[in-house]
Amino acid sequence: MSKPKILVARAVFPEVIARLEKHFKVDANQDDENWSKAQLTERMRDKEGAFTTGGERIDAQLLAACPKLKICANMAVGYNNFDLDAMTAAGVLATNAPDVLTETTADFGFALLMATARRITESEHYLRAGKWNKWRYDMFAGAEVHGSTLGILGMGRIGQGIAKRGALGFGMKVIYHNRSRLDAGIEAECKARYVSKEELLKSADHVVLVLPYSPASHHTIGAAELALMKPSATLVNIARGGIVDDAALAAALRNKTISAAGLDVFEGEPKVHPDLLTVPNVVLTPHIASATLPTRLAMANLAADNLIAFFSGKKPLTPLNASVLALE
Ligand code: GLV
User: Fold this and answer.
1) Active-site residues: which are they?
2) Ligand 1 pocket residues where CB is under 6 Å
3) pTM for the model
4) Which residue minimizes the CA distance to atom 4 of ligand 1?
5) Which of 85, 174, 218, 251 is the most buried (most CB within 10 A)?
6) Where in the chain is the domain with CATH 3.40.50.720?
């Protein structure tokens, strides 16, 4: 029997490509070319499976041009690049890569919070620019982290990881808001108290965003929400671009409506709103929250496991629209 044809849409670990090649005829973008939508569609047209990395939009238009496609496996926990309804309607299974990145991403969320609150990159730029010629009592004085109030918007697995770091490691008071309130047992484990979004914004010293992106969460944080926050507060976004109105945030940072922000994700990334590049009180990183080599390898292997299981007639590990499998 001939091997199913799959597309690997972006460069990934060579050992994962080698694994996939044992099971599939692989067309891999190991040169990591930036394909347009038309190029992606063209490369996917004759494929039965796809390994995607989170940036490739899989929608009704692409699906109509790729009638052989049966599964798209995302090497990301977020899957806002998938039009899940269109995929389900076309009978295409979607899988993501949860769990394996939880602790690593929570580590990064906390690192970004610390760097933002304690002005680490801003002070490093000052030092590198040769401007440090004397010590001063209030030089780069930042916000307190230990014992402060941590507000988490979006309390999934990663949010819970950040809550535990804050509560158990730094003695922070943790409050959270989520679409639904967590079980009392999980709240107790995270030492987290459920509050309204408004109360969270008004009372947190540090607000961390970890909610998934959907049209409903677009601009969850805009000018009105920023105005509710304390002038001394910091905002950290490790969720998705589009959850924050970046233009409104840049204005709020410039006007000191809030004190500082740490951003790993951006509206329209890899482009960054030009105003964010000119305000000093923001720490900017290029969507690297899950980026340690062991975690990225585990994410890639999970996407590969999903493809291999599916084409071997087994249940994929992390399906998003399992109803498609029932139709098989
Ligand atoms: C990264 O942003 C992911 O969704 O895994």
Assistant:
1) 240, 269, 287
2) 54, 76-78, 101, 290
3) 0.96
4) 78
5) 174
6) 5-100+293-327, 102-284
